Amino acid sequence: MKGAPVQRRRTRQRAAIRAVLESARRPLSIGEVLESARRSVPRLGIATVYRTVGALVEEGFLSQVEIGGEAPRYEISGRAHHHHFRCRRCHRVFEMDGCLPDVRRLAPAGFVVEDHEILLSGLCPDCAAPRRG
Ligand SMILES: [Zn+2]
Ligand SMILES: [Zn+2]
Question: Taking Cα atoms as reference points, which of 66, 84, 65 lies closest to residue 76?
Answer without folding.
Answer: 65
